[in-house]
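Study this chain:
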Amino acid sequence: MQEELSAVQKLLNTVIEFCVNYSFQVLGALIVLVIGVLAANWISGLLLNAFAKKKLDITLSKFITGVVKVLVLAFAVVIALGKFGITIAPFIAAMSAIAFGASFAIQGPLSNYGAGISIILSRPFVVGDTITVAGVSGVVQEVKLACTVLANEDGVKITIPNKHIVGEIVHNSKTYKIVESVVGISYSDDPEKAVKTIRDILAGFEVVAKEPGPQIGVQEFGDSSVNIGYRYWVPTNKYFQTSYAVNLAVFKGLQTAGISIPFPQRDLHIVSQANQTNLQGSAS
């Protein structure tokens, strides 16, 4: 029993000694950390508001403010460690060794982060742009360090790892997407009248972009029709609903204008059995 009391007494003495010797260091370190967190949040918020007033790209703004916040927090941690007389040089060396070894195990994710930094700094596209890359298309919703998030007209979110974007061919049509359609008219109809009819129809749709304007003309001469091609720009999130509505309006408009839309025709020549017999007899 006496030994247990002695052990407890030694523990209490150790705790008291630690509090006496290091209480001010611990308190100072906590105060530094709290001030560092508050300062990091205040500076990052200040920068974000300033970038918003300058209308800087939101992705680049968040990236810069995030880096500044991490630097301020790291500076606060270094000062807090200094309160205990701890130098960070050994920690930096250890972390470097760990990072070097881990880089081989997480090479894939790291390549995504590296590609994300490249996208954020070079800005081949920004939030709100319409891009086509890696076989998918959509409006850019968010650019993260690891991935880029797109959304299509159906509300489906598409997440693309950034390493599949950097180094690939990226089609960026900003906030619009082009619609390409074709309709065939009879060779007996006036193609200029058809072009004017389609142009007037497109002009009636407010959602169709005026600049660049629609392009309409004779695309090719088919076997049964003169094919009129027409191209126009619409907001990406209204691509399908606009193209369907325009196609219906073109169909009805051409009918109203008296322009026919022919369908493929074939001439069949039927040879009777008797004629075939006569032909075979003549041949013999």
User: Anything to note?
Assistant: The chain has three domains: 2-104, 124-172, 176-256. The helical segments are 2-53, 58-82, 89-105, 107-122, 191-203, 239-256, 273-283. The radius of gyration is 36 Å. Residues 113 and 268 are 65 Å apart (CA to CA).
